[in-house]
Amino acid sequence: MNKAPVVIAHRGASGYLPEHTFPAKALAHGMGADFLEQDVVASRDGRLIVFHDLFLDQLTDVAQRYPGRARPDGRSYCIDFSLAEIRTLRVTERRGKDGIAARYPGRFPAGTGSFRIHTLEEELEFIRGLNRSTGRQAGVYAEIKDPDWHHQHDVPLGDRVVGTLRDFGYRARDDGFFVQCFSASELQRVRTAYGADLPLVQLLEEGADVRRPALSAIAGYANAIGPAISLAWPDRGLVGMAHELGLLVHPYTFRADALPPGFKNFAELVSTFVEGLGVDGLFTDFPDLVVQQARTTT
Question: Do 153 and 277 lie in a common domain?
Answer without folding.
Answer: yes
